[in-house]
Amino acid sequence: MKKLLTILFSMLFFIASAEEKSLKANFKDGNPNIKSINAMTFGPEGILFIGDSKSASIVALDTKDAKATEAPAKIEMKNVDVAIAAALGTTADKISIQDMAVNPISNVPYFAVHNQDGTPVLLKLVGEKIEWVPLDKVSYSSRGIANAYAEDYKDDRGRAQRVWTVSDIEFKNGKVMVTGLSNAEFSSTFRTMAFPFGNSQDDASLEIYHAAHGRFETYAPVKTFTTSTINGKDYLVASYTCTPLVLFPMDELKGGKHIKGRTVAEFGAGNTPLDMIVINKGGESFLLMANSNRSVMKVRFSDIAGFEGSLTEPIEEPGKTGGVNFIALPMVNVVQLDKLGDKNFVMLKREANGDLNLITGNDFWL
Question: Which pLDDT does position 20 carry in this prediction?
């Protein structure tokens, strides 16, 4: 009996300790007042991190979607925008899909949508059904973003800059990483925030040589990024409009630092990178990147690792590429991309007939 009681007490202690260590321990219930969803990514425990440029904040949302699936099912759905619009009681031309993120625990895709009036909505695909995810009565934690542009600030061309407070977001090693613009002298910024959120935020300003533009730049935001270990060192792998691929050493991206990235590739002017993921196959890592005006690009990280130089001279011929090689995959008009398990990925793809379909791809293309 004594032995049994000891085991029970040990189990209760273990459960209590696990609950104390939960990243959601300090979450509160209520309305986080999300004004926009510009980028999102999943962390542990089914936590969805939302980048809200309009309110200049990051919201960690408890989706309560933390039941693991053994193997991700293939996802195929036609006319996703039509289905989403129908769930919102409107039509596809009245909405814009801002981002898509797949919960790595449940393998459920989530969609960030803005209505025509800019109201943000969060939805998910459960089986073949689009379901609302409430944003007004939730369990959450939030953190304001320091040094954001004022809501009414515009650049010399009259373009609003507050929308670029958050251009992309990722969670790794206990930190929320955010790219975007700040109101600092060098506006292109990489922000890191420890999670659970505290009061600290580290800002590093970024500078790149943009071969297609033939100049150094500090004001253009990173459009999409990921992280990877290359030759034993951790890097931020970032891409910008027109379309340079740049490496920043993670150990140098510290608060108050101004970091010059190493431009390892130019993938052609007249294009905006939209999304990127890292997929592994047979012990080799690959970067897949979706683009506005080009097909999905595949880049071997071994090729990046083997490229020791940096692009420092202009590429003057329109559309010409340089640096690390890439393979143009037969996947065009892909607007969103995310991993689905270890071997698959899902993409929102605009077909030639105008349909926006959700399609599963696999490592065959690697």
Answer: 56
Give 3-state DSSP helix, strand, coil % of the chain, rounded to 5. 15, 45, 45
- For 193-227, the pLDDT digits (tens) are 999 999 889 999 999 999 999 999 999 999 999 99
Per DSSP, helices labelled H in the chain are 2-20, 80-87, 301-306
Side-chain-side CA neighbours of 293 within 13 Å: the count stands at 10
Tell me if 161 sits within 8 A of 181, measured CB to CB: yes
What is the number of residues in the chain?
366
Whole-number Å distance between alpha carbons of 358 and 265: 29
**Amino acid 70: pLDDT:** 79
Structure tokens, 101: 């993120």
Query: Per-residue confidence at 323, pLDDT binned at 50, 70, 90?
Result: very high
Read out DSSP for 64-85?
------SSPPP--BS-HHHHHH
User: Alpha carbon 263 to chain centroid distance?
Assistant: 21
Query: How many Cα atoms occupy the beta-carbon half-sphere of 57 within 13 Å?
Result: 15
Q: What does 123-164 look like in DSSP terms, one character per residue?
A: EEEETTEEEEE-SSSEEEEEEEPTTPPPTT-B-TTS-B-GGG
HSE-up of residue 141 (Cα within 13 Å, Cβ side): 17
Helix (H, G, I), strand (E, B) or coil at 27: coil
Nearest to 243 by CA among 292, 277, 190: 292
Residue 72: the pLDDT is: 81
Cis peptide before 44 (omega within 30 of 0): no
- Over residues 224-248, the pLDDT tens digits come to 999 999 999 999 999 999 999 999 9
pLDDT at 9 over 50: no
